[in-house]
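Q: I'm teaching a short session on how sequence maps to structure, and I want students to see two examples side by side rather than one. Could you give me a first protein with its sequence written out and its structure tokens following it? Keep the formatting plain so it prints cleanly on a handout.
A: Of course. Example one:
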Amino acid sequence: MGTLTSNIKCGDGIGTQIGETRLTYLEDSRKDRYMAEKNKEMVKKAVDYKTLLQGIGSILSEGRRAAAGALNNILVQTYWNIGRYIVEYEQEGNAKADYGAELLLRLSKDLTVA
């Protein structure tokens, strides 16, 4: 066993300073405790990361469902308003529309992107 010239606190434990700060030596018992603690931290981080990953996945799923629901609602409103607008145009304020105007064929042709 060597002697530590200067115990310093490094990011990963106790080390020795020799010109620069670096982790160079740990006594056997301290090393075992350090490694056991490090393993616990790694397991905890893995559990925390797994929880984080699952949480993010859940948020994305909920967001996608909400977006799909909102989009469906918007599309239904849009198509309903288009239909209402067409009916009002065709009926010109009358109870019934005149037939034979082929309005839907004209609209379909004109609204189709060439």
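Q: Perfect. Now a second example for contrast.
A: Example two:
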Amino acid sequence: MVKKEVTIMTVYIDNQRASFYHMVMCHMVADSDEELLSMADKIGVQRKWHQAPGSYRSHFDICLSKRALAIKAGAVEISRKELGRFLLFGRRRKKLHRKRLPRYRKRLRHRKRLPVL
């Protein structure tokens, strides 16, 4: 008897209804790009529609018919507010690794120059 490994994907679909020409669209996001691309392949969305790949804003805009297929394939429905929290967490995670300027240099860079009298 051969046991199959079951991989659990966490892909999220928001409840936004944005019109784009004759279609109604929503967002599909995931914890990683691999999971997102795997779901896109599974529901028949072309990889060229992947927006902001490799960043914390990585997502697909999908139409409602593809949304129904994604939910049947195991995607989790979330609200727009929850999607915002999801993206905010990703943004904060990326900021931790960014090198910051000391405070005094930041202030000097943004100070207005006074005219010489």
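Q: What should students look for in example two?
A: Point them to this: The beta strands are 11-14, 18-20, 23-30, 60-63, 76-78. Also worth mentioning: The radius of gyration is 20 Å.
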